[in-house]
Amino acid sequence: MSVSNPTLITFVIYIAAMVLIGFMAYRSTNNLSDYILGGRSLGSVVTALSAGASDMSGWLLMGLPGAIYMSGLSESWIAIGLIVGAYLNWLFVAGRLRVQTEHNGDALTLPDYFSSRFEDKSGLLRIISAIVILVFFTIYCASGIVAGARLFESTFGMSYETALWAGAAATIAYTFVGGFLAVSWTDTVQATLMIFALLLTPIIVLLATGGIDTTFLAIEAQDPSNFDMLKNTTFIGIISLMGWGLGYFGQPHILARFMAADSVKSIANARRISMTWMILCLGGTVAVGFFGIAYFSANPGLAAPVTENHERVFIELAKILFNPWVAGVLLSAILAAVMSTLSCQLLVCSSALTEDFYKTFLRKTASQVELVWVGRAMVLLVALIAIALAANPENRVLGLVSYAWAGFGAAFGPVVLISVIWKDMTRDGALAGILVGAITVIVWKHFNVLGLYEIIPGFIFASLAIYFVSKMGEPTRGMLQRFAAAEADFRLNK
């Protein structure tokens, strides 16, 4: 396949713009707090769109439309679960986590917050939570690199191996240089690009297939059960898809956006912006996969790439239906989704290694300049490991994401949620919650018990462990005082 010059030029301009933003952010990055949390300076719009874009990775434009294309509307339960979970996360966790991290040693990372919140002098809580971040995020980073490789492979006819490096290079560049501010500013641009692509594409597909009535008739002719929300589903299957929503409470890259807001007063407005963006994007994603059924059944000669890999449905529709310049912009939206999430994950891994290992255990007296450069080196290290994990061309984006999402949702979700709403939680309760959640996910996934998504038992067992183990001890007076002060601050300013 020949490289489409307009599409290539669009990609190059887009990537250059993202790297330029990285260099602009570089000038505002003076210390580790700036590199990891942007100096807690994000306004409500950047907080909202950055949280949305960092959450919706390549699976939004590849994994989910592909699943809808293959199975019809029965796969959309996942979108419903995500919307409910994200809303509850904004409602119960966002504002409280913002004030709790400030009152607990001005914590920059989740392990940092857990250590301060539960007065963990042993360092055990910090080490275990940092290890969980590194294990599951490296898998998550690999999913982003696979999505980027698929995009470059199918757009420019590259080999998978070349596409792997091409897709990862730009993201590594601006994350390395600009840190959190670069990631958040680029996320805002990328979120705008993603919503444009996901609202425009289904409309053009509808017009190309002859309008709503013709499209729905074509989908029904292909298989009437495409409209059935319960097709080939079981109670456990629906609960598993809805269970994705539980993952929000424990995703470090999303929680970091809440911690970085300029104040708790920004959170309510950010919630409204973020949820509107999310509902429109997920609706567009479902529509792309669903209307794609009609388009490719009417044009079977063009369906070969999608038949071979259904995760390419959005890519192929963009290439077929749009002028190459517009297609370049739309395909850049996939790159935006991949880059926004991958950059956040690289940064969270880097901050865990730098703040929670290097600074805490190896170099307590390290200067801020040294810590920023160690953070940059860790970005490169984690990226190289993730590229190695992504090297298998058989990888599927949604499969890699689901495992990492479950790992974080079960290991950190209950700990974060309960720590900001229950004053009597203890260090041992937190430790038990992280360990039980992470181990349950790994064991449940291995044995595939009942076909139930591993996040659900992981979340339930971790929550029970936190409650019962916390009941065996009691929090210190300092923990109770800081919790009460943070809660009062939250209620005063929300």
TrEMBL record:
<feature type="transmembrane region" description="Helical">
    <location>
        <begin position="6"/>
        <end position="26"/>
    </location>
</feature>
<feature type="transmembrane region" description="Helical">
    <location>
        <begin position="371"/>
        <end position="391"/>
    </location>
</feature>
<dbReference type="InterPro" id="IPR050277">
    <property type="entry name" value="Sodium:Solute_Symporter"/>
</dbReference>
<dbReference type="Pfam" id="PF00474">
    <property type="entry name" value="SSF"/>
</dbReference>
<dbReference type="GO" id="GO:0015824">
    <property type="term" value="P:proline transport"/>
</dbReference>
<keyword id="KW-0472">Membrane</keyword>
<dbReference type="InterPro" id="IPR001734">
    <property type="entry name" value="Na/solute_symporter"/>
</dbReference>
<protein>
    <recommendedName>
        <fullName>Sodium/proline symporter</fullName>
    </recommendedName>
</protein>
<keyword id="KW-0769">Symport</keyword>
<keyword id="KW-0813">Transport</keyword>
<keyword id="KW-1003">Cell membrane</keyword>
<keyword id="KW-1133">Transmembrane helix</keyword>
<dbReference type="InterPro" id="IPR038377">
    <property type="entry name" value="Na/Glc_symporter_sf"/>
</dbReference>
<dbReference type="GO" id="GO:0005298">
    <property type="term" value="F:proline:sodium symporter activity"/>
</dbReference>
<dbReference type="GO" id="GO:0005886">
    <property type="term" value="C:plasma membrane"/>
</dbReference>
<dbReference type="InterPro" id="IPR011851">
    <property type="entry name" value="Na/Pro_symporter"/>
</dbReference>
<keyword id="KW-0812">Transmembrane</keyword>
<feature type="transmembrane region" description="Helical">
    <location>
        <begin position="450"/>
        <end position="469"/>
    </location>
</feature>
<keyword id="KW-0997">Cell inner membrane</keyword>
<dbReference type="GO" id="GO:0031402">
    <property type="term" value="F:sodium ion binding"/>
</dbReference>
<comment type="similarity">
    <text>Belongs to the sodium:solute symporter (SSF) (TC 2.A.21) family.</text>
</comment>
<feature type="transmembrane region" description="Helical">
    <location>
        <begin position="403"/>
        <end position="422"/>
    </location>
</feature>
<dbReference type="GO" id="GO:0015193">
    <property type="term" value="F:L-proline transmembrane transporter activity"/>
</dbReference>
<feature type="transmembrane region" description="Helical">
    <location>
        <begin position="124"/>
        <end position="152"/>
    </location>
</feature>
<feature type="transmembrane region" description="Helical">
    <location>
        <begin position="277"/>
        <end position="298"/>
    </location>
</feature>
<feature type="transmembrane region" description="Helical">
    <location>
        <begin position="234"/>
        <end position="256"/>
    </location>
</feature>
<feature type="transmembrane region" description="Helical">
    <location>
        <begin position="76"/>
        <end position="94"/>
    </location>
</feature>
<dbReference type="InterPro" id="IPR018212">
    <property type="entry name" value="Na/solute_symporter_CS"/>
</dbReference>
<comment type="function">
    <text>Catalyzes the sodium-dependent uptake of extracellular L-proline.</text>
</comment>
<feature type="transmembrane region" description="Helical">
    <location>
        <begin position="429"/>
        <end position="444"/>
    </location>
</feature>
<keyword id="KW-0029">Amino-acid transport</keyword>
<feature type="transmembrane region" description="Helical">
    <location>
        <begin position="325"/>
        <end position="350"/>
    </location>
</feature>
<keyword id="KW-0915">Sodium</keyword>
<feature type="transmembrane region" description="Helical">
    <location>
        <begin position="164"/>
        <end position="183"/>
    </location>
</feature>
<keyword id="KW-0406">Ion transport</keyword>
<keyword id="KW-0739">Sodium transport</keyword>
<feature type="transmembrane region" description="Helical">
    <location>
        <begin position="195"/>
        <end position="219"/>
    </location>
</feature>
